[in-house]
Amino acid sequence: MCGLRSAGDVTAAVAAGAAYVGFVFFEKSPRHVTIDEAAALAVEVPVGVVKVALVVNPDDAFLDRLLDRVAIDMVQLHGSETPQRVADIRARYGLPVMKAIGVADAADLAQIDVYADVADQLLIDAKPPKGGDLPGGNGLAFDWRLLADRKYWTKPWMLAGGLTPDNVGEAVRLTGARQVDLSSSLESAPGVKDAAKIAAFGQAVGNL
Which domain holds residue 170? Predict the structure, then answer.
């Protein structure tokens, strides 16, 4: 569960069974948190739950500040980072790196194999609309049938984009996903997490 901004968000996500909690460091996002805010939130996360920093085309100076201050377990790259940049960040900081890949049609799937060679995990998300400000968290789904019978990827992966309690079962059935990631569908307003929606999604996944 990504885009958490308060201690209450963290508590609700953990109670719902989230294995990963994500903090967004992207100023255009309504889910953006500062480094200081994230440092306070990170201490609320129980041991065993992975703390993920979502960043977009970060430079080393920003990552140095972030990772020096916040107890992050994994970096999620959600921009246009090249495979070499992914490898460099992984080597520089010694943390697992998840690379987000936007999918709109079959042609986009080739990037998955490319990034599987350098990332520890992959996030398969809907490609953002042209001209949009946000690389993710848009609440959009793609045609999940594109991922059918593609369970041979060499790295663990998460499915993201437009998932809700009502459709997550179908999404998992079509894609074979073993991990799912969501953010906007857990909100009552952009950037405002809803504890009831978080609990409902946790229950829906638990029933699969």
Answer: 7-193
